[in-house]
Write a structure and sequence with these properties.
single chain; globular; 9-stranded mixed β-sheet; alpha/beta; 20% strand; 9 strands; Rossmann fold; binds beta-D-galactopyranuronic acid
Length: 392
């Protein structure tokens, strides 16, 4: 006979968990394909199911990029400063340029390599900066915790960044600027044409094209990192471009690591995001406003596209708009794909307390006390995770 106190505990547990469990039934299973067949082998995932999910995200959420690496892509190292950061790093400024039907464009890459890196190529954190350019000051007169370049270099990583506005403006300009204007076809845009997040992710891939040519960089160990809208972008970049060994989503929330079908009462929804930022997505995404269950994917399947590589999903305790609980659930629900591919995903299904990072599996996670932001604490967690998995 259970004692009354344990009965109370059991009931309380059920009350807290049952609604969520019931909700979880709504999520599509990444390991059931479009024909309804279970995906039971790593080969079936890699050769068939992964491509299906990627296409669904292109078609319905982020849109299709009309171009990959342009034939006319050029790199020019415009400045090399060997004694940057008080002699602790070499700074390189690189102009990555490209041209399309609509004219020319380019990315101004800022990057620092720890002194002595030429002896042995180093892994790199590539940061997509979605805030003001003062956060990525190449002179280092201004130092922002949003991009603590000195600390990253001190831990032996190269650190690279570009401002997302170089690629496409974070404004609803009808796709008349940036790479959309350069590369969209003369026939005009379609409902599955790339939105701005896909454009920024494309920019991250062009930076990767450069990093692969730089002998200071260990291109097999490049992490792509972004905060919030930048976090959504980092996930999409990691999904589209398997050269990224690690994708880091910092507080990415809705249309990033936040689930569409299940969300907390204060969380952003597809309706909210399509009202404020419709240009981040393809036009088809409109169909899922107040209609999330019709979306043929959910965001845990985006997370699964990173498998078996490294993925990190981080949240902040007061950031209910980004929905920490559902960001965690996203990681949990992506895990079966990692496991099918022979690596550990999340190592628990219980949401951890703040400041208790989970770094054992190929999906890292932490929740930080505080608000929507990217802080030095977050960066230290990302480097701890990379150290551990890259055995540094
Ligand atoms: C918010 C937006 C979020 C998030 C955030 C940000 O206004 O609703 O989806 O991306 O901006 O980028 O800081």
């Amino acid at each position: 006979m259970p004692r009354p106190v344990s009965l109370v505990l059991v009931l309380a547990f059920l009350a807290a968990n049952l609604p969520l469990r019931a909700d979880e039934q709504k999520l599509p299973d990444p390991l059931i394909d479009l024909k309804g067949n279970p995906v039971t082998t790593a080969d079936a995932w890699t050769n068939h199911r992964r491509a299906e999910i990627l296409e669904l995200f292109r078609e319905n959420v982020y849109g299709r990029a009309p171009v990959g690496r342009p034939e006319n892509l050029r790199f020019a190292v415009t400045n090399t400063m060997p004694d940057a950061m008080d002699g602790k790093a070499t700074r390189k400024l690189v102009r990555i340029s490209y041209a399309g039907r609509g004219g020319e464009g380019g990315i101004n890459l800022i990057f620092f390599v720890p002194a002595g890196a030429t002896k042995k190529p180093v892994p790199c954190f590539l940061f997509i900066c979605n805030r003001g350019q003062e956060n990525i000051d190449p002179t280092r007169a201004e130092k922002s915790p949003f991009w603590p370049a000195e600390q990253i270099v001190a831990r032996g990583y190269a650190v690279a960044t570009f401002w997302n506005g170089d690629v496409a403006p974070d404004k609803n300009t009808g796709f008349t600027n940036g790479v959309h204007a350069l590369f969209d076809p003369p026939s005009g845009r379609r409902d599955d044409s790339w939105g701005t997040i896909a454009a920024w992710a494309w920019g991250a891939s062009r930076v990767m094209d450069y990093l692969e040519t730089d002998s200071d960089i260990d291109a097999k160990h490049v992490a792509v990192v972004g905060h919030s809208r930048g976090g959504k972008t980092a996930l999409w970049a990691g999904a589209e471009d398997e050269r990224f060994a690690l994708a880091v989503s910092n507080d990415s929330g809705n249309s990033g690591a936040g689930l569409a079908r299940i969300h907390g009462p204060k969380a952003e929804t597809i309706r909210d995001i399509m009202k404020a930022f419709p240009y981040w997505f393809c036009a088809n995404y409109r169909k899922y406003i107040d209609n999330e269950n019709a979306l043929p994917v959910d965001q845990h399947e985006l997370a699964a596209l990173i498998a078996p590589r490294l993925l990190y999903i981080a949240s902040a305790s007061e950031d209910l708009w980004a929905d920490p609980q559902r960001e965690f659930l996203c990681a949990v629900k992506a895990s079966p794909v990692f496991e099918l591919l022979g690596v550990k995903g999340m190592t628990t299904t219980a949401m951890p307390q703040p400041e208790h990072p989970l770094h054992d599996g190929n999906i890292g996670h932490h929740i930080r006390t505080g608000k929507h932001n990217l802080t030095e604490y977050d960066w230290n967690c990302y480097m701890d995770f990379a150290d551990r998995h890259w055995k540094r």
